[in-house]
């Protein structure tokens, strides 16, 4: 089932990801940061923190990779954009499948937010940004009291189709998992602004995921939820589009 193969939407996925990693390495070299802060006992229960004196906002970023690939360090290239706007940046890590189950990833994300809530460096304004699978994890944490706003980029909000793809070999999702860990089935009201973004050049399944989620959640919280499909943007360029051009 190729509906969830993002590589098919671009001619050079390998080059794009290599560029992310190279630019991220430059960010680590150029900006003060504290690497691999432990927030829990699991191997990947860590975060990288790019602090900023007198920051007006804290941005927490959760990376994607279909819950089984990528690392927070691949996405440090977003930090300069965030710092330039007077905000500080946290890159969140979590354990991956098949070693970790999606229930554990959700619990880790919650624990990370609990940890940040206890730190004296946190700001009053805290924005959670999730990309792809990271948007899924973020969507399950929207009611956390730490957060004041959220932006979900190219996310997956209904796990049912994932169970029918090659991705499920590592994830091993059950029907109960789908009901419990699909954000579209969560009925609790959200009381922070949440922007759902996806690219016009994304897979049709991912555009459907965003639209479907918005219809479910926007019906409950119309004033707080918004949805936009961005012209000329794909699953990878949406990061640059948002952090360079939209974030404020």
Describe this structure in words.
An eight-stranded mixed β-sheet has the order 1-2-4-3-5-6-7-8. The protein is an alpha/beta fold and 248 residues long. The radius of gyration is 17 Å and the shape is globular. The chain has eight helices and eight strands; from the N terminus they run αβββαβαβαβααβαβα. The longest helix is centred in the N-terminal third of the chain and has 18 residues.
**Helix content percent band:** 25-40%
SSE order, one letter for each helix or strand: HEEEHEHEHEHHEHEH
> CATH topology, what is it called?
Rossmann fold
Q: Runs with pLDDT <50, length 5+?
A: none
Radius of gyration: 17 Å
Helix/strand/pairing category: alpha/beta
Main sheet attributes: strand count, strand direction, barrel closure: 8 strands, mixed
Number of helices: 8
Instruction: Give the DSSP E fraction (strand runs of 2 or more residues).
Output: 15-25%
CATH architecture: 3-Layer(aba) Sandwich
Give a short synopsis of this structure.
With 248 residues, the protein is α/β, with parallel strands linked by helices.
Q: Secondary-structure blueprint of this entry?
A:
Elements: H1 13-30, E1 34-38, E2 46-50, E3 57-62, H2 79-84, E4 87-92, H3 102-117, E5 126-131, H4 133-139, E6 149-153, H5 168-171, H6 175-181, E7 194-199, H7 204-218, E8 225-230, H8 237-246
Name the descriptors.
Rossmann fold; globular; 8 helices; 8 strands; alpha/beta; 8-stranded mixed beta sheet; 248 residues; 18% strand
């Amino acid at each position: 089932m190729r509906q969830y193969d993002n590589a098919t939407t671009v001619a050079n996925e390998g080059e794009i990801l290599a560029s992310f990693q190279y630019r991220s390495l430059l960010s680590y070299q150029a900006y003060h940061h504290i690497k691999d802060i432990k927030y829990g006992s699991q191997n990947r229960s860590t975060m990288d923190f790019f602090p900023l004196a007198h920051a007006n906002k804290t941005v927490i970023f959760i990376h994607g990779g279909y819950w089984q690939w990528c690392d927070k360090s691949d996405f440090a290239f977003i930090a300069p954009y965030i710092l330039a706007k007077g905000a500080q940046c946290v890159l969140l890590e979590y354990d991956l499948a098949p070693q970790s189950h999606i229930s554990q990833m959700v619990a880790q994300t919650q624990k990370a937010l609990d940890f940040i809530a206890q730190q004296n460096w946190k700001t009053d304004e805290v924005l959670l940004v999730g990309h792809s699978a990271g948007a899924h994890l973020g969507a399950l944490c929207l009611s956390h009291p730490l957060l004041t706003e959220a932006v979900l980029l190219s996310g997956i909000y209904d796990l049912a189709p994932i169970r029918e793809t090659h991705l499920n070999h590592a994830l091993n999702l059950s029907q109960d998992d789908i009901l419990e860990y699909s954000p579209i089935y969560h009925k609790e009201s959200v009381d922070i602004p949440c922007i759902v973004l996806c690219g016009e050049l994304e897979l049709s399944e991912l555009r459907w995921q965003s639209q479907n989620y918005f219809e479910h959640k926007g019906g409950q919280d119309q004033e707080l939820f918004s949805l936009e499909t961005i012209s000329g943007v794909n699953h990878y360029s949406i990061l640059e589009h948002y952090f360079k051009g939209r974030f404020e």
